User: Fold this.
Amino acid sequence: MDEQGYPIAPPRRGRQAYASPVPSITYTSSNQFSHEQIETFHDICLEFLRARPIANKTFNSVPKPLLKSLFTKVFDRWDSKMTVREDIPTLRERNSADVTIQVGRFTCDLPVSIAKRKRGQSSGTEVVPDERRRGAPAFLAPCLNEGEECIRWMYKDSKGKLVNRKFVEFTNGFNDCTAKIAAVDRYDETERERIMGHNALVGITLARRRIKEFAKQDDPTEPFVHEKDKVSGLMQPLVLCRDVTIPMEATIIALNKHLDENGSDNANRSF
Assistant:
């Protein structure tokens, strides 16, 4: 094993003897793997688990259901005679639709931004675009940057331009608290799909590439994983808004209850 736990090709055998350029076997199922070959997939599963840490839990062994699910996806309409991508899948960029929800409408035609006024771009006679007129839909999105321990809340128009909170009237039963809770749920749901879907695709790709190499190798009890097929550093960590808001959840619920009972949405809020 090397420093990362991967099998090393035996030095007593040359690479030409260890791997044949022509596959000697076609893998169609994990049932064909040797014990040693199965162990070479453990790192993929562990990296997948560590992308979303669980409090007070360290993953040192691979749950059998997770390994089984990897092999199920790997051999879904695929075997080692078929092609496999040579590049590593690219993580899809997060877009506005992933993290934005409609929470209300604008109470007036929105004024020209302070930035435009400072740049002298305001003549006082600008035509207000439809998406910034009174009654146009208002949207809310949480912003969670890496390394930050708080959420920044951004109100926007339908084209993604920022809007001051004071111009937003909540609709559809939303208030300041429930709107933010719904926005957190939206962000976390789509971010989980984006990150974990990407990590799963990385794992499946690497597993298939290894299997194609195993088909060329002479001895299934001495499998060899090439450097380019190792998973270290290729999966993305999953960070959710919920990680930041969970410690505040009791406060949010209590505040929401207070607002509902008192019919007021003007309390001083820190969330």
User: Anything to note?
Assistant: The CA atoms of residues 26 and 32 lie 9 Å apart. The longest strand covers residues 137-143. Residues 176-214 form the longest helix (39 residues). The two ends are 50 Å apart (CA to CA).
